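In the design runs reported in the main text, the only information available to the sequence generator was the tokenized backbone. The following block is the verbatim input for one such run; it is reproduced so that readers can re-run the procedure and compare outputs position by position.
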């Protein structure tokens, strides 16, 4: 054990040796204590697995390591010494002034990457997540930490071969598979490394094999994070359940060690994708079942380019939008979210498809939480920030009963500013992040039990979407992750039959008056935003065949007519909303037409000097309805007609294929009228083709018309 520990210490110095003698001494001490000597001498005869059931268990890990205090001390010394060396150098730069900080940034970033790499998978994972945040870290640190995604040192191939034989046993074809593997790994990651090979039938494959002794190292790191770092962070005022967050992270991290679970996650994702609109646009590499186990995973080889190094940069915006829609579907529909979307795991294939690698780290989202998140994202994209505080309570960011504190603390105005700034794009770079954190801490301190907390489930969601936002910002400095959620949210709230999703749809298109059915009218601006989002979703999920993927093509009038008739035929919240608003507009238009015809009719003077229109006298000789709401438009009717006019104008930018109108004025009114007429003709023709559905649709409008008429009469004059 001592000889092996000494050799390992020599390798560590060779790979990560520091110029600081004190750090070399600390590394030598920790290596000698940590490697083999403590494991085989101090802990001889004990259970050598910190997680006996191969699942995250902080109690079992604590019981395991409490009998191994020197091993814990050695790791703590290693963490402290390595962190102190880098921290001391950074502190020296800070004391020397901004010029020194800027001049030494490149060197410090590389030192930080070496430190994180040397500390192992737990800290490599943290660095990989941070490396994508171009809005939070200076460019030198982005460049330095990016090396963590590709340049993690490999372990010896003979160890990998031995582990593959141990895992796959005597299965037929194993030796042929081993003979086909590349001499060196084609990629090395924090938990394992990948070799390229081929199946006996010649199918190219990627074989991933896990690093030795991973479970023990991760268990010790998570114990120190949970038992030491999390309480220290809470003590200095960082809000939230940090121990719970550490547990959520550890649970996923340990689960990532089970490659058989990773294979199942990838298969589930592919099955979910095949059932929806993403089919043919995104996929995970298919798993080769016969050559996979708990620590070995074999998949079909996929040729592709990383998104951040794509040779088709004009396609990156579409792929970012596709990635966002994919992750939103995973989180809000499928309930299983891929939690490791760094650029090395997102590939663009030659066909323009998105391939997602590395399915070891996932988290599950409950159906109730999915609906709450849909409502929250709908509020953000619709800029209904007044509803955000209540969302925060339901999502667990504010303790139960904290609604009063939110209303009295001024947080609504502050959140409105933060969200509107974030919504405008550019990520956190447009926000004063230190001031933001200080204000959050101030608001927390002003309330009795603390105002804000971070729910444990949010750790992996934040990681996934933070990385996606970073990828978007790397190609577009004004990228807005809030706006990029719009395509999926638009499609989801227009198609999901859930009553809560219907509420989110109504909030989106009606705003604050959504609950007043006697007053609500569609917002043309919001409807146009919703339709643009649905178009962008369709564009992002379409496979690329040489067309410019960044352009949103106009909708064909035939497709638009089919979509409207499909909506009227299919029971859904969207159907109810369309029937309600179309009935309102048709009734208001009828009353408006009646009023114009009546006013244009000749006047007739009756006995007693009463003056009436001839048309009114013929239709209503007794004058029973002259002052009735049934024949006079009110304020809501006028708003509905104006909204309909603006929506028709907006349709001219959404619907193409109408004949050009030579009489169109400079404002394009003639073209808009022509396109609306083309759509109307398509609707009439297709409605006749579907005439068997006309009675059922007519009943819907009749029932809605009766309801609206009763409501008008009930309000009186």
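Verbatim output:
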């Amino acid at each position: 054990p001592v000889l092996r520990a000494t050799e390992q210490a020599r390798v560590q110095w060779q790979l990560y040796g520091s110029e600081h003698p004190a750090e070399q001494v600390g590394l030598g001490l920790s290596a000698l204590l940590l490697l083999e000597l403590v494991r085989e001498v101090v802990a001889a005869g004990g259970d050598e697995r910190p997680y006996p059931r191969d699942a995250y268990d902080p109690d079992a890990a604590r019981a395991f390591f409490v009998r191994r205090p020197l091993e814990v001390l050695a790791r703590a010394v290693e963490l402290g010494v390595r962190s102190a060396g880098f921290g001391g150098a950074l502190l020296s730069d800070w004391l020397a002034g901004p010029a020194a900080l800027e001049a030494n940034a490149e060197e410090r970033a590389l030192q930080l990457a070496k430190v994180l790499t040397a500390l192992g998978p737990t800290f490599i994972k943290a660095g990989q997540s941070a490396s994508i945040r171009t809005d939070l870290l200076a460019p030198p640190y982005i460049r330095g930490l990016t090396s963590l995604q590709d340049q993690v040192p490999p372990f010896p191939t003979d160890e990998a071969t031995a582990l593959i034989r141990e895992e796959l046993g005597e299965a037929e074809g194993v030796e042929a598979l081993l003979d086909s593997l590349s001499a060196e790994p084609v990629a090395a990651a924090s938990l394992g490394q990948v070799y390229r090979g081929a199946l006996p039938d010649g199918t190219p494959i990627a074989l991933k094999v896990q690093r030795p002794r991973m479970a023990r190292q991760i268990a010790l790191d998570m114990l120190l994070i949970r038992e030491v770092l999390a309480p220290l962070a809470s003590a200095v005022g960082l809000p939230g359940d940090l121990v719970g967050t550490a547990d959520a992270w550890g649970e996923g991290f340990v689960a990532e060690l089970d490659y058989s679970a990773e294979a199942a996650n990838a298969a589930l994702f592919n099955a979910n994708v095949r059932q929806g609109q993403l089919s043919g646009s995104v996929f995970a590499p298919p798993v080769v079942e016969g050559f996979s186990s708990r620590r070995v995973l074999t998949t079909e080889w996929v040729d592709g380019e990383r998104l951040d190094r794509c040779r088709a940069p004009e396609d990156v915006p579409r792929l970012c939008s596709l990635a966002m829609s994919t992750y939103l579907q995973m989180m809000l529909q499928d309930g299983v979210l891929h939690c490791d979307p760094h650029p090395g795991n997102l590939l663009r294939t030659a066909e323009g498809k998105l391939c997602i690698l590395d399915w070891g780290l996932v988290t599950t989202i409950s159906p109730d939480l999915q609906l709450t998140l849909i409502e929250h994202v709908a509020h953000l994209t619709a800029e209904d920030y007044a509803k955000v505080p209540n969302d925060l309570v339901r999502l667990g960011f504010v303790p139960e009963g904290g609604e009063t504190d939110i209303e009295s603390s001024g947080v609504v105005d502050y959140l409105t500013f933060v969200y509107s700034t974030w919504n405008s794009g550019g990520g956190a770079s447009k926000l004063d992040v230190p001031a933001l954190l200080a204000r959050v801490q101030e608001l927390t301190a002003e309330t009795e039990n603390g105002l804000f907390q971070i729910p444990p489930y949010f750790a992996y969601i934040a990681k996934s979407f933070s990385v996606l936002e970073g990828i978007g910002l790397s190609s577009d400095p004004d990228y807005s992750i809030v706006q990029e959620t719009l395509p999926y949210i638009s499609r989801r709230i227009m198609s999901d039959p859930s009553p809560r999703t219907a509420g989110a749809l109504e909030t989106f298109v009606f705003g604050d008056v959504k609950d007043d059915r006697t007053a609500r009218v569609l917002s043309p601006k919001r409807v146009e935003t919703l339709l643009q989002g649905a178009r962008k979703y369709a564009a992002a999920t379409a496979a690329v065949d040489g067309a410019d993927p960044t352009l949103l093509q106009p909708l064909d009038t035939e497709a638009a007519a089919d979509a409207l008739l499909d909506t009227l035929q299919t029971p859904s919240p969207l159907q109810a909303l369309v029937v309600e608003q179309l009935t309102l507009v048709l009734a208001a238009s009828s009353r408006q037409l009646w009023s114009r015809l009546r006013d244009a009719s000749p006047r007739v003077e009756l006995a007693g000097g009463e003056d009436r229109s001839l048309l009114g006298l013929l239709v209503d000789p007794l004058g029973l309805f002259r002052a009735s709401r049934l024949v006079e438009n009110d304020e809501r009717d006028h708003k509905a007609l104006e909204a309909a006019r603006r929506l028709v104008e907006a349709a001219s930018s959404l619907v193409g294929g109408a004949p050009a109108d030579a009489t169109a004025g400079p404002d394009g009114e003639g073209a808009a009228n022509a396109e609306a007429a083309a759509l109307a003709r398509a609707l009439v023709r297709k409605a006749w083709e579907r005439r068997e559905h006309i009675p059922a649709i007519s009943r819907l409008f009749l029932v809605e018309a009766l309801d609206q008429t009763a409501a008008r009469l009930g309000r009186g004059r």
